[in-house]
Q: What sequence folds into this?
């Protein structure tokens, strides 16, 4: 690939469509995906092509089975009217299992009709038993409303499907509880509204026949661990009322579906994975924007932004009449990409198409969203730049192309987004545009990691003490906990935690069990990641704009920070950590901000160790102390550093779980890095490793932190730590430990294959490095990783979960690793650890404390991370 791409020039491939004769806008004249791609690339010299790989997804024919004879005839008639002439094979298999009383997870592709798998048994049962009820849980409001409409169109009128969520007016809630037999809700409402008031809900809970958990892969990390306990609490309360509902879970993208679903529900779940639905073929291109002449930190070369290329592709595709969705990573990007695409079209004299391009994101009014969905489905709109708000489950058919601006964080999301493309019988086009970061760079150059790999494990850890304790309190407040309840909540681990809670006075131990001893109800935030939320207040008006998570506030709303709220930008005038508030004013500067911080880390407990000759890998509990000390202003559009300002904020502590590698003097000598090069080599390896871990666990780099040092006081040697950015840990670091070889191999490949000379954002630079990416030694990192991989290769045992890539298309989900971890409560320093106070303070400050949310994202895609908040209720 050429490094001499003209700075700031529009992508070479985005020339006018003139000459291609393809200004068509009627669906019939849109060429299939492969031809579209060829057309887009016409005139680009092969060596300058941003396309790094093209993959073809084959057409799949449908396989049907006859309707089971138990299906309610009027339900069947309604379905037939809707065009479902015969159910697909997996629909019958899953429905039959659920009908027979087995909990089941349907893990088949996007738009494979997973809804029918639970609608058949559940709606039939509601007809057979006029008092039976169903609870349907969705992770987003948009999906909940979509499903409500679809059930309402199928159900017997006596079912009265209704939503019970944050938007349900107080006066309707009572009606829903009394009359609805298909209640659409979410885990948050179950946790806060239904379970604590179970007496009021007893007539529903007593007759609860099915619990449907749609898009179950959305329940991951700390939130997923909480949801696991909420479901255990639901099962316990149902048992009390004599009910034993069947759980039906659905996801197009969950690894090891049976294990993941069983861990989530806390009871056996069987998986149906053999997809019988037809699939149109697709051409899937990996695309990496070229390096430009712009430079970032320490003169590192920068790539043309993914947002710019996405806007260009959107304009090109719209010009060719292709109905296209462009998925971007922030609300602001949704608007800027749509705007850029419109500008390109106007410049090309295609004013007629300008109004056919729009943006879609959370934060729009529901009516606006419905209208956009309608216009897109009808073909009135041809191009829409959207956040992941359009990713899940919403049935938009007939798209010709999908562009993904950057890796959406998980392979699960990537396939969900890609799965939106596909018109019946027509091959569609999917383009993944890599951003300037290690994971995107890796994927652009390792197609097997996209197409030959199962989706990542949905990591949950219900034994996390920071989840378990509050959940046990919530359970005890609902009904006293008895010894018989404990196996469901973790057995001995739960018992030990209960004793601690009793000793702390939160619970009271009586002969019959554990009782809630606090006042009122336990206040447990199942989405929070720690710390009191910080209020964002507009100074001029006193208006409360929103809140940010306390754990993230120091690095996102410090004095001087650029803060983005619903696409509008504000600058923080003053942040007061004690009062938990930040005062802001509206401003739209040409820069973004990035916090810089220092971190110290001490080991609390080692839980598992792999000795690999001169290298040792550990996992366990650590204490991380982090202090935000300064921030940088960076130019929007290029990421160029403009200035740095000091900050005076107090340090904060996080007890969490980590994976760490130590290298003894022999290992360092073998890596051929001298004293001067060692800190930068370890630091660079740490950054790249953090960038790559999300390949294996459902997290993104903003969920992780790291620290590397040539001499750590607790290990007495060169050490690289990677830790979970959530109190108590979230299972990500442990996942890295379990898949160490695969993780580090991918890390090494990313660094070694990057075409930059001495490190750039695509390999070893981090967008959130508290040390301003200094020092970094790219070549040293490769040699250090080589030594570790050598030792791993010599090890007798495989990684516990180190399965090699297994082929397959990857889009149908199943297989892959999952972690069910056992926990040891963090209890003070570990015996045998030599602490040498004052020796070897970490010389290198690593990535910012994890959990730091992304830098507000400008059109450059500087920063990153998950921004859309449609998942929050
Ligand atoms: N057996 C069938 N024959 C024909 N069409 C079907 C059949 N089953 C479902 N469909 C249709 O397929 C479309 C997708 O169905 P559905 O929304 O249930 O898929 P899904 O797997 O839940 O999708 P997502 O991956 O978006 O969650 C719907 O329009 C539905 O009516």
A:
């Amino acid at each position: 690939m050429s490094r001499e791409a003209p700075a700031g020039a529009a992508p070479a491939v985005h020339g006018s469509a003139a000459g291609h004769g393809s200004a068509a806008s009627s669906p019939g004249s849109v060429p299939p995906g492969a031809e579209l791609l060829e057309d887009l690339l016409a005139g680009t010299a092969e060596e300058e092509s941003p396309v790094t790989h093209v993959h073809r997804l084959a057409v799949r024919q449908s396989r049907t089975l006859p309707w089971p004879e138990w299906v309610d005839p009027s339900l069947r008639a309604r379905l037939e009217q809707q065009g479902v002439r015969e159910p697909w094979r997996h629909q019958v298999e899953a429905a039959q299992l659920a009908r027979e009383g087995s909990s089941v997870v349907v893990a088949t592709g996007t738009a494979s009709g997973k809804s029918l798998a639970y609608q058949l048994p559940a709606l039939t049962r509601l007809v057979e038993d006029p008092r039976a009820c169903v609870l349907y849980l969705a992770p987003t409001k948009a999906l909940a409303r979509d499903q409500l409409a679809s059930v309402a169109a199928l159900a017997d009128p006596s079912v009265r499907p209704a939503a019970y969520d944050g938007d349900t007016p107080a006066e309707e809630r009572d009606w829903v509880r009394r009359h609805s037999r298909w209640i659409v809700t979410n885990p948050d409402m179950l946790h806060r509204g239904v379970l604590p008031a179970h007496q009021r809900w007893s007539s529903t809970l007593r007759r609860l026949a099915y619990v449907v958990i749609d898009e179950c892969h959305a329940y991951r990390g700390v939130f997923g661990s909480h949801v696991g306990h909420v479901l255990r609490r639901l099962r316990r309360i149902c048992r009390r009322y004599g009910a034993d509902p069947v759980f039906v879970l659905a996801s197009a993208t969950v690894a090891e579906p049976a294990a993941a679903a069983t861990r989530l529900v806390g009871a056996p779940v069987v998986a149906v994975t053999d997809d019988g639905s037809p699939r149109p073929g697709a051409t899937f291109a990996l695309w990496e924007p070229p390096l430009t002449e712009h430079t970032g930190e320490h003169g590192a070369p920068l790539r043309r932004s993914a947002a710019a290329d996405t806007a260009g592709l959107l304009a090109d595709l719209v010009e060719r009449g292709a109905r296209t969705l462009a998925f971007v990573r922030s609300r602001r990007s949704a608007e800027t990409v749509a705007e850029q695409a419109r500008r390109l079209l106007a410049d090309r004299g295609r004013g007629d198409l300008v109004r056919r391009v729009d943006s879609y994101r959370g934060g729009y009014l529901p009516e606006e969203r419905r209208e956009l969905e309608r216009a897109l489905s009808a073909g009135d709109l041809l191009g829409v730049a959207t956040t992941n708000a359009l990713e899940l489950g919403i049935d938009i058919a007939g798209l010709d192309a999908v562009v993904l601006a950057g890796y959406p964080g998980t392979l699960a999301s990537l396939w969900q987004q890609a799965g939106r493309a596909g018109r019946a019988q027509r091959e569609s086009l999917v383009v993944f545009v890599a951003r300037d970061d290690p994971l995107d760079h890796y994927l652009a150059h390792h197609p097997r990691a996209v197409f030959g790999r199962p989706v990542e494990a949905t990591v949950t850890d219900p034994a996390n003490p920071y989840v378990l304790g509050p959940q046990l309190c919530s359970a005890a407040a609902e009904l006293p906990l008895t010894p018989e309840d404990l196996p469901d909540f973790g057995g001995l681990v739960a018992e030990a935690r209960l004793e601690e809670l009793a000793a702390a006075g939160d619970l009271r131990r009586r002969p019959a069990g554990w009782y809630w001893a606090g006042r009122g109800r336990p206040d447990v935030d199942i989405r929070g990641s720690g710390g009191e939320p910080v209020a964002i207040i507009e100074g001029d008006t006193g208006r409360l704009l929103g809140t940010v998570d306390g754990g993230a506030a120091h690095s996102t709303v410090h004095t001087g920070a650029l803060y983005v709220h619903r696409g509008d930008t504000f600058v923080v005038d003053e942040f007061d950590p004690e009062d938990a508030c930040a005062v802001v004013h509206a401003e739209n500067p040409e820069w973004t901000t990035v916090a810089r911080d220092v971190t110290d880390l001490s080991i609390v407990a080692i839980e598992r160790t792999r000795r690999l000759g001169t290298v040792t890998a550990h996992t366990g509990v650590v204490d991380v102390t982090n202090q935000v000390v300064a921030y940088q202003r960076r130019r929007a559009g290029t990421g160029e550093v403009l200035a740095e300002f000091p900050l005076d904020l107090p340090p904060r502590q996080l007890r969490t779980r980590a994976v760490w590698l130590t290298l003894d003097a022999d290992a360092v000598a073998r890596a051929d890095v001298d004293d001067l090069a060692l800190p930068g080599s370890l630091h660079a390896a740490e950054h790249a490793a953090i960038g790559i871990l999300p390949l294996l666990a459902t997290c993104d780099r903003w969920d992780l932190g790291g620290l590397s040092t040539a001499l750590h006081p607790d290990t007495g040697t060169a050490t690289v730590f990677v830790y979970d950015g959530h109190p108590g840990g979230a299972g990500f670091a442990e996942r890295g430990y379990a898949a160490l070889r695969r993780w580090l191999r991918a890390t090494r490949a990313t660094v070694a294959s990057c075409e930059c000379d001495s490190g750039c954002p695509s390999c070893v630079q981090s967008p959130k490095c508290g040390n301003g990416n200094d020092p970094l030694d790219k070549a040293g990192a490769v040699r250090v990783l080589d030594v570790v991989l050598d030792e791993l290769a010599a090890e007798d045992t495989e990684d516990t979960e180190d399965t090699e890539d297994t082929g397959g298309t990857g889009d149908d989900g199943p297989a892959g690793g999952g972690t069910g971890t056992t926990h040891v409560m963090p209890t003070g320093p570990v015996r045998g650890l030599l602490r040498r106070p004052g020796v070897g303070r970490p010389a290198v400050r690593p990535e910012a404390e994890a959990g730091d949310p992304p830098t507000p994202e400008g059109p450059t895609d500087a920063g990153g991370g998950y921004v859309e908040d449609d998942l929050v209720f």
The chain has five domains: 73-272, 282-452, 465-516, 534-589, 592-792. Residues 282-452 form a domain with the Rossmann fold fold (CATH 3.40.50.300). Residues 82-84, 87-88, 91, 110-116, 252, 393, 395 surround adenosine-5'-triphosphate (CB under 6 Å).
